[in-house]
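Re: your question from the hallway

Yes, I did run it. Sequences:
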Amino acid sequence: MSHSKTASIMDARILVPALGDAFRKLDPRSLARNPVMFVVAVVSALTTILFLRDLATGGESLGFSFQIVLWLWFTVLFANFAEAVAEGRGKAQADSLRKTRTETQARLLANGDRARFKLVPGTSLKVGDVVIVEAGDIIPSDGEVIEGVASVNEAAITGESAPVIRESGGDRSAVTGGTQVLSDWIKVRITAAAGSTFIDRMISLVEGAERQKTPNEIALNILLAGMTLIFVLATATIPSFASYAGGYIPVIVLVALFVTLIPTTIGALLSAIGIAGMDRLVRFNVLAMSGRAVEAAGDVDTLLLDKTGTITLGNRQATEFRPIRGVGEQELADAAQLASLADETPEGRSIVVLAKEKYGIRARDMGSLHAAFVPFTAQSRMSGVDFDGSSIRKGAVDAVLKHIDETVTAGGNRVGGEAIRDIRSIADEIAKAGGTPLAVVRDGRLLGIVHLKDIVKGGIRERFAELRRMGIRTVMITGDNPMTAAAIAAEAGVDDFLAQATPENKLSLIREEQAKGKLVAMCGDGTNDAPALAQADVGVAMNTGTVAAREAGNMVDLDSDPTKLIEIVEIGKQLLMTRGALTTFSIANDIAKYFAIIPAMFLAFYPQLGALNIMGLETPQSAILSAIIFNALIIVALIPLSLKGVKYRAIGAGALLSRNLLVYGLGGIVVPFVGIKAIDIAITALGLV
Amino acid sequence: MTFNGWIQILVFCGIVVLLVKPLGGYMTRVFSGERTLLSPVLGPLERLLYGAAGTSERDEQHWTTYAAAMLFFNLAGFLLLYLLQRLQGSLPFNPAGMGAVGPELAFNTAVSFVTNTNWQNYGGESTMSYLTQMAGLTVQNFVSAATGIAIAVALIRGFARASAKTVGNFWVDMTRATLYVLLPLCIVLTLVYVYLGVPQTLGAYVDAATVEGARQTIALGPVASQLAIKMLGTNGGGFFNANSAHPFENPDAISNLIQMVSIFAIGAAMTNVFGRMVGNERQGWAILATMGVLFIAGVAVCYWAEATGNPLVHALGLEGGNMEGKETRFGIASSALFAAITTAASCGAVNAMHGSFTALGGLIPLINMELGEVIVGGVGAGFYGILLFVVLAIFVAGLMVGRTPEYLGKKIEAKEVKMAVLGILCLPAAMLIFTAIAVVLPTGVASIGTPGPHGFSEILYAYTSGAANNGSAFGGLTGNTPWYNITIGLAMLMGRFLIIIPALAIAGSLVMKKSVPASAGTFPTDGGLFVGLLTGVILIVGGLTFFPALAVGPIVEHLAMLLGQTF
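Structure:
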């Protein structure tokens, strides 16, 4: 998978099979999905028949007719080729995924007893079965860990070879079929039957087998069909106008005019654009469950971002020691360091680091101190260390004060009201600044506070400013209290925040925004995120998350990186922009084609119209042929653009539109004048007409 | 081109723009059901009418009910007008003793007035009795205009309302358009025209002895009242055959200016009604600006072509512009301006003969109509017409800003695009298909006045004018034949109702949608960029559709003239 990520557009492994597919896609059932190209195929077939008839009866200018017929078919083939190339990249990914879906043997547990299992083929597993997977085994199907903890290699789906931990309970309980357990063992309850596992869905998604037209694609198809009808009217009435003037126009010329006028460029590339959009997400290691979700991403108005991990660096770090009056900084630092020596949490480690860097307190060996570590529990909300009859605790201010109260009733030293006031004022000050205060107490004596700070990620402020320019409002979601949340929100530059977030108020925030007509995107991983993920218009579930979260979202991020929401929005916008830009280009092209074909067409009986031949094309036949060749070649020329997508720039909608109008609108008017003239010179020089 | 000519054009534009805000504000109040200056007088009458019809302003209609009411009302109007013409011989108010109108002509005329086209295959003073003129034609002049305004207001409500089901009440909108907008303005205008010398009488025609001693019958009638609504309601059906070129229907430069302004007044103000109702007047101005750009461009080309005249005539030693078919009391600038206005606004009244314009001068009226009568357009009709183009423009451009397209907070999706395409498609269908048949049909070609490309233009113009519900004629073509009466009648029906129904369907679909608040990512639709975009889309879609037809008509005629050949 990681190899195919770098597969370039011009990769022969994709281009060669795509050539074959271009012919295979001439199947009318496949063509019928695309109204514009279907029409081109039908008229190509008709002109082929007419040409064969002329060939048999010995008609005029057979060479010219033959070339037109040839280029008409090329137009259809180029469109098929574009689609095949777009699909080809997905196919390469699907193939590498398929390799991971090897036949596995599963150890099915009969009654939950670890030792009693029977070996069954992985494909025979049903939802609800419990299997045991041991080190070295491939996990047979998607499931949820119900017992045990193991390190798992998920490179098969994420391309990332570093193993991840999967354990029962919590938000890291989901395992994916096809991944490999590296150490320890886990008991897994199967959640997906054979054929509908995550990898199966990934394969069909990247292959485009499940691709359905998105709402916007349908609307665009209607517009293109409408334009086609308009040009049916414009060309089908010409023979009668000619006959009024006493002239005659060959069918082949009319067909050439018709095919060049109808929006073949966008018609040919439309499905390639859609497939490439999904593909870009896949290369970002994001799986969209439907094209609709990708489109919705472009429309997102409000982005809900979890504070932890997205806006801040996940773990808080100690930045200063604030002793109360009468206590030295050194003393506080010393106690805090002792209490944290055995604390393996990032916060604990950061205290040790700070004490060393700022106060030169070296790490001590717990064993030689005869110290016993007191771990953090949900009840005590403190951790610390006991040694030589002395005890040090650190924890939330309230918890620590409660602890002092308890020890006081047990007959310890009394703590003065002044010390409590002091500690509260320091704590408030830190909380207002967005930090977390951690009180430190030694043998019932308050020492002071460790200031833990949420570190806002570098560059995130600029990202939010960019989002604002894109017209997207960011809302930070955090479990912190409102004061802390406000401070971090201000530092990070988000537009709004939801403090003390619960699954319920997260859900109601989404509903409120949607009631205002806005589209909401969010990401989440826990089971309690599932309702909000399902409610959001774009719900990105983290791959590390629970099965419930993955089911509820309409995208899955394989790297579990919540900042990716921003890229997802950009990819959605890019997809829509590419469609718009190529549609504009396609329609703008028609002006030049008229100036090429109309004078050529009527020249026999209205020679005055030769004045409209502003490109100075050599002969009527070369003019018509040049127009149709340009029309076919422009499809091939634009395949890279349709696969790469038009670049999105956060410069405001007005500026973006004028830029795109200039490039694709004005460019669309000018380019064919130049192109048709060049082709005319070339085919005249080659003596093709 | 003269300085004086341009001053006339600018004065006209200035007056129209000045009228937009006051008239727009007044109409907004009327259609929102708020109190206006005229409410004390007209309020009781209005309620009386609702009582008699068994409706109420609170009875809001779903778009389908609204459409059904509109169709029923127009069908009834058609039947009434048809019967009036067929039976006029035995009905009163017929001092000139006009007989029954033939069935095809009666069909054509009834359709023509019901669809606000006023294509006239008859000469008013020699065909229609006073009763037919007043109770039939003039009544339709009012209600066909009111129908157009009602549809536009319904469509505006589609954008202005959110998460609703209904688009208004057809009967109420129609009544208010007639009672509060058209009638009061027409009464004022009628008095002004009478003051300027336009006849208003039910007396018989007058016989006079000319200076040469010959006897001449001078046609009279209730001209001023019909003139007022013919302009204000963009109907265009003249009381006299010569329409506003006739001295009794357009005596002098002042009456000419008033007529031109009243053609544009309501259509231009409609953009302001839109702006006010959606809560941002700039949105209305942006649409009016688009219309303005297209209009000025058309006037400039037409005036330039007419003022330049014919090089072949110049070669014979005759200097100056093209005065053929123009009234000397109006001159070239006012005639070119009038031609551009009347075809831009789907009015169809004329003060000069368009068929006598130079090829390029005559091309402009054709293009104005082929673009779908969206340059100000017919009252109401022009506005809902241009909104169909707005839907298309927004759809393509909206994608280019990286969002699914939205206009005024409403998402433009498959249903809206489908309806807009249908609406836009029906005009070229009617114009091109009928022209294509007529130019190869012996009966069709037989009516042509001048053979060659000019004759082609005559036929193209006839169907274009009919389908666009304009009603002006190119001259030269003998339209009063069964073939043209029936086919132009059909073109008029297509051009009217096949646009109205999709427009109402869009209103019905939009009204149900939520309104998305604008953000920095939303494409602003009240600025110059939008104006440029919309202008481009109208020109490209319209231009591409008709390029082949125009090439073998006016364009080849012009190129031939430059090479010394005329038709």
